[in-house]
């Protein structure tokens, strides 16, 4: 190319009448501006921290049961302490994601690890939680009668519904994060 061709291209570029696509630009600005929209990673960390608070509330509520049902209270406390550890580890792993210094493949692997951790948390929670709830219902029924058991069942159903909603929210946060990162090309960890 000669100098004339470069000058001609420069003039054409400077005189080009490009109309901005305002909705697309506003959407891009909302996606990238940190004060407008917090990152998916930070939202996931906040979700984990909220779950830690819920577990702490569960421990505080179980203290009331200690005088009547010490074994049940200890089991409930162990259950919630285990989930505080799970959620704390998930929050720590998510907070450590530094997309600026990690390669895309490392970032995707880290997000996949968080997704697998979420599945493990759900499985452990169901495996340990259901027998604990049944144990709670049996002892509460013996102590307080059937009306109390009915209230416990209603509370368990509401808790399960909330748990499913929270799980769906966490899943969507992690999959959105993985989609934003793109594909590493290693084929590892496609939907489990």
Please characterize this protein's 3D structure.
The chain is mainly α and 192 residues long. It contains six helices and no strands. Helix 3 (40-63) packs antiparallel against helix 4, helix 4 packs antiparallel against helix 5 and helix 5 packs antiparallel against helix 6. The longest helix is centred in the middle third of the chain and has 41 residues, at 104-144. The N and C termini lie far apart (53 Å). The model has no long low-confidence stretch (mean pLDDT 81).
Quick overview of this protein structure:
This protein is mainly alpha-helical.
Give the total of beta strands: 0
Mean pLDDT: 81
Provide the succession of SSEs: HHHHHH
The percent range for helix content is over 70%
Question: Major β-sheet, in short?
Answer: none
Low-confidence stretches: none
Shape annotation: elongated
Distance between the termini: 53 Å
Percent of residues in β-strands: under 5%
Topology:
Blueprint (H helix, E strand, L loop, with lengths): L2 H13 L6 H11 L7 H24 L6 H26 L8 H41 L1 H36 L11
């Amino acid at each position: 190319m000669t100098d004339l061709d470069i000058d001609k291209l420069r003039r054409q570029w400077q005189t080009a009448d490009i109309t901005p696509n305002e909705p697309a630009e506003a959407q891009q600005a909302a996606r990238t501006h940190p004060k407008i929209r917090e990152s998916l990673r930070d939202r996931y960390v906040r979700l984990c921290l909220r779950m830690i608070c819920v577990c702490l509330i569960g421990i505080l509520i179980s203290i009331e049961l200690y005088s009547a049902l010490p074994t049940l209270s200890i089991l409930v406390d162990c259950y919630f302490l285990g989930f505080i550890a799970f959620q704390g580890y998930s929050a720590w792993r998510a907070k450590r994601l530094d997309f600026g210094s990690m390669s895309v493949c490392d970032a995707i692997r880290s997000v996949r690890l968080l997704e697998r951790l979420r599945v493990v948390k759900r499985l452990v929670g169901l495996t340990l939680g259901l027998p604990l709830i049944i144990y709670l219902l049996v002892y509460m029924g013996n102590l307080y009668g059937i009306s109390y058991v009915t209230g416990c069942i209603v509370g368990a159903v509401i808790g399960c519904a909330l748990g499913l909603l929270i799980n769906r929210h966490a899943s969507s946060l992690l999959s959105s994060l993985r989609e934003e990162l793109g594909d590493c090309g290693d084929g590892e960890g496609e939907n489990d």
